[in-house]
């Protein structure tokens, strides 16, 4: 298991004060550090230094971090990336705040992926000795951890090969033009290398864009309560609370003050390398995305940052 | 990731007809095959041929299966097992019904662990094309899949080394006599090699015994509803519904008609290889096991099969 | 407490076979009787003969029944109705299948309200001696009981007076043009005479129309699961699952095969005669109706039957 | 509907500071006033001045308040009480802090019941204009309101007649020695005069004692979360979380620092005057009380204050 998880999302926001309010008071992340025009945040159940970096100036994704367990894993992924034919660069330890040496991959989708094994690390907010089940006084939604992201790319098939060959990910679910593998064009893929039902999903669209990044909650009632908190805090909801057909997870999509789409996501089944891949056909895309409404709103399919 | 998951539990039951009723009608597993004095069962969300084998005659565990992804993984684990110094044997394809060639390891705990990469395989009950979120008409509790087991062993420290060295598992949580690693004696460990918070747990006790094996549910309300179904079906409940401090999962412990302890388990956090291990001290064991009552009943700590 | 509850909804459906499938298999009501072109249904937790009457031919509401406890209550309501100035008629015992003598009120809204104290009565599906918490094998959504209805009327203020003076209902919540009682025009009212947060709600609109009638579920997860079942059964969902600001209840709106709108409704607070009335202002209507999305779809406000 | 609800519980506690911590920080009630050796508290969703009075000195119940809608209701109940043959007294307005004139009934069970229609009144913590669904930042369990109490009495049959004749309550459920009404001796009764499944329950036992008084939550997950908070706050849990067979409600029983038993209670079905009474037989008492475990602990049946 080379890649442990999506370790961080680094996104641009138009106003850092507004973003701080949203991510720390509504989502309930911990503010770990504020350096120059950047905020570093983590969820209460995370032990690495940060999982979200907010950078003032614009909107959209700067890069995603993917953590590996061992330093050797970085070199292994570097080899695979070069073999695949994408550009890579090394970023020295400390250039990325609190993070060790980084392999930065220029993804075929136009995104930057940071591979790292070292980051300043502590413990979750409940600690490691006789911990309580959760912090007694959570703020707002109280999101425990980052979960995954959905990005867009012009060539989803190429990204599937990239994520398979370089990250060791498999496709848990896909939306394809037909069920015939020989003739199949992928419209979207949900990929992972662990039990997490998706670590990175890719949707056909413009290069280098962000559809959303997501935070993990545990149960359906927390999804409903998250939407309640958004109503109280005047956070614009895109869609939800509802269930995905794809992944079976429960969800709310909403926007941060800069217009980046967030998600809170709960449940879904466990992925395994040997589990048969699920395919959705074009006539069932809407049910796959929003299992209850079985229709897509235009905003959901067109607003990217 | 050599070991994908605990693939099957093979247990003895005193009466096959009673056991069939319990496992298929109350737990809601699918009966896949009945051969000689054995029943083969699977959950609705499993794609391998079976995850539970019930064998008439006695009580207790016969063996556990652990599935690996590739045939090569078997040889790798065989090497590690021999290096560790435990007895192993090869079981030819087909000797275990619908399973390929097996590496059978004689665990230091006195249990048998089957390592296999091949088993007759199909799809989950909702299929792989535009699947529904769950089967519309589930029976009883409707358990989707097997999850983990808790066994007893005289030497938990030895089992921790075995599971680490041979299975590649890490200890997610433990109950230890002190917090000082140098002087620490493990009373119980919860180990895994994936995001599942535990694949196998080991409690200090007699060799070769079963404390319980568990089925996965998704949310807390399903745990409550499972207990409701048990009340309707006169299934004896040991403890629950409640929450574990250890793993944070929600749980009901109950008994099959032969007296083997089952569990339904939901939630809990995701484990990662780099997540700091949690340690529970002896004074907090009861809260670790049963977070709400903070006391252990005698039955829970003494009834083994 | 003169009026116990909304006892039945009698609605028209275009096709009885389709409606039977929807109300008994998706909603999970019991079919009690089929007479001529009518089906009589009840929920599993109801003890009166029926709570829903489906009549083939057309669409929309025929009448609502309101049950009172004593025969004397009928005469008392008759007096109040005549004093209010609406037309009433007496319907002899047996004219309405399995119902005793009825006082039929011609509501100012153009609807017919049946007041009755006698109806063939039995017990809920779990019985009255050592009952289980719910029937072990529910069909589909498994709705236990009818709950309330929302109708439209040209003059909501007049309906509020009618429901107050004749039914003894108070307004638990309202949408009003201003907060100034002197200058206030009611756009919608939610009225009740018991702890049920609404027994009948009235929205400004055409006379004699039905917006929806609702079935009661207990918890939020049942609302989500109800939407899951609707997805599996191809039932068109109007809105939800979501929460109402008004009543705080959780909800899914959907359509029966004839196009009548149904709701499943769970939770909400208890109403009391002395509880201060809640007022919603026009700018907050959307949040009052759909607390999460804070926007109304056109279908929801225009489709009536 | 003469009696609206159980309006307040006035109990003794051994230490006011400890009790304040428990009732305001763990249960999450609002402290409204502190006068002499008494604390006055209310839940966030209550509008009357207080629903709990804590009086320093001893343990157990001082009295319960029952609110009626109109001043005339007081005289009506006074007449009924005198006809029944119990002692009553009038307590002048203001003698009970912030409460109007009171009819104090000496119940056959040895308890004092205050009947009142007037109490200083405001609004719930979310207000009456465009209210949020709940206060955004609740403390601890965040109990919205008091719900009911269970008291003991030597003669439960006499109490049933008293509550019927004087309060207008009916028995929703009972535990009786036989199913034969002619020969039936009541061991416990759950009585109400509204949709609340119980306003006051009576168990055979010593006179003038308190088994528990309860706070209302809405859903099962809140019951589990309440038990989590109790674990964090070292509140001793008696039983739960579990479900009652009787009332079907979800529950946790626990103790305040003085040893008075509290309950958080959610769900259960709606009671109606015409709903058939449920009877439990002696062999099923344990399942009726604790539906899952189907056994009673000795503490639950013997600890009274």
From TrEMBL, chains A, B, C, D:
Identify which cofactors the protein needs according to its UniProt entry: Fe(2+)
Assigned EC number:
1.13.11.2
Its UniProt entry gives the catalysed reaction(s) as: catechol + O2 = (2Z,4E)-2-hydroxy-6-oxohexa-2,4-dienoate + H(+)
- Keyword field: Aromatic hydrocarbons catabolism, Dioxygenase, Iron, Metal-binding, Oxidoreductase, Repeat
VOC domain boundaries: 5-118, 145-267
Q: What InterPro entries does the record tag this protein with?
A: Catechol_2-3_dOase, Glyas_Bleomycin-R_OHBP_Dase, Glyas_Fos-R_dOase_dom, VOC_core, Xdiol_ring_cleave_dOase_1/2, XylE-like_N
- List GO molecular-function terms, semicolon-separated: catechol 2,3-dioxygenase activity; ferrous iron binding
Looking up Pfam families in the UniProt record yields: Diox-like_N, Glyoxalase
Q: Which domain of life is it from?
A: Bacteria
Q: Which PANTHER family match?
A: CATECHOL-2,3-DIOXYGENASE
Q: So what family is this one in?
A: Belongs to the extradiol ring-cleavage dioxygenase family.
NCBIfam families tied to this protein: catechol_2_3
Subunit field text: Homotetramer.
Name by which UniProt lists this protein: Metapyrocatechase
> What organism is the protein native to?
Raineyella antarctica
